[in-house]
Specification:
about 325 residues, about 35% helix, alpha/beta, 9 strands, four-stranded mixed beta sheet, elongated, about 15% strand
Length: about 325
């Protein structure tokens, strides 16, 4: 692998980033380890005006590369040390071939430029994300949104703004379902549903303590409008409708996600709006009742709505 070509001569950080990407490809090593073991930064032994931040990349032994950095080093035309030090080391090199002092200072140059790059990478999250398995701001975004300890389905930083509010709105759940399952979603509130009454609150024959004047109702169920809503998905093409049916891969996740979002105390139904653009007669044994075949006269192509059966945990 040849890295001697300078890809970003005027930007030290981008040059190192591109080199690290190629060096870490196919290696089970951390970028910091590769930066320390396979790259070596030096300052130029020259007083010529540099043409950029990176002036030369030369190969060393065992897949190691020497990167000559013109700026922010100790020696050279843009070095931090006085010019007399660079002049003295140039004289030592050309008269006696001695680079001992330069090699000594390059140890500090390497450490200095390594820390420069790591500090830059820390605050440039796109560069950090290239070398880590997790997104740099994932944990911080989940913590600020209040879902760091919630269920895994709610720990999604791309939807953190939907879960950050204390009040869970219809618009947010519609947005979440639309992006999560790639289908249009609409919530209809106050559709009502049957609720089971606690037997202790029912009026029963033979129970003298439960009189008609004291017990609130007759029977064991009641119609509750305010704690029930309906989620309508679709229209969904016929070929994709099976994903939301009981044997489809979206069916259990759809129910669990909505339950986790609304919490306890609210009940709901899910209606699936299926779009059928064909009017082909389906032979017996080739379709599914309620989906693409029916008993009796068919209304032809169009849309029809089915109510999904309730998904019970463990069933």
């Amino acid at each position: 692998m040849d890295l001697s070509k300078i890809l970003s001569p005027h930007n030290f950080f981008q040059q190192v980033r591109l080199m690290l990407r190629r060096l870490t490809r196919g290696q089970d090593k951390d970028s910091k380890q590769v930066l320390e073991e396979q790259l070596y930064f030096i300052s130029p032994l020259s007083l010529d005006a540099p043409k950029g931040d990176i002036t030369q990349v030369t190969p060393l032994d065992k897949q190691r590369w020497q990167v000559e950095v013109a700026a922010h080093g100790l020696t050279g035309a843009l070095g931090a040390l006085p010019t007399v030090y660079t002049e003295w080391m140039i004289e030592r090199y050309y008269r006696h071939g001695d680079k001992t002092a330069k090699a000594f200072l390059d140890m500090f140059n390497h450490r200095l430029h390594s820390l420069r790059y790591l500090a830059w990478q820390k605050y440039h999250y796109y560069a950090m994300a290239e070398f880590t398995a997790t997104r740099p701001l994932s944990q911080a975004i989940r913590a600020l949104s209040g879902v760091a300890t919630s269920t895994p389905s709610l720990q999604q930083e791309q939807f953190a703004d939907l879960f950050a509010h204390s009040v869970r709105s219809m618009l947010n759940i519609e947005t979440w379902l639309r992006h999560r399952f790639a289908v249009a979603a609409k919530v209809t509130p106050f559709t009502g549903g049957w609720q089971v009454m606690d037997p202790a609150l029912c009026c029963r024959l033979g129970e003298p303590t439960q009189t008609l004047a004291a017990a609130p109702m007759l029977g064991s169920v009641y119609w509750d409008r305010q704690s029930h809503f309906t989620v309508t998905l679709g229209p969904v093409p016929m070929k994709n409708a099976g994903l939301f049916l009981p044997k489809g891969k979206h069916y259990p996740h759809l129910w669990s996600h909505i339950r986790e979002y609304v919490g306890q105390g609210l009940d709901f139904d899910i209606d699936l709006l299926i779009e059928n653009t064909s009017n082909i007669i389906t032979p017996l044994g080739c379709g599914q009742l309620g989906l693409d075949i029916c008993l009796g006269h068919s209304e032809g192509a169009g849309q029809h709505k089915i109510r999904l059966p309730v998904c019970r945990e463990g069933k």
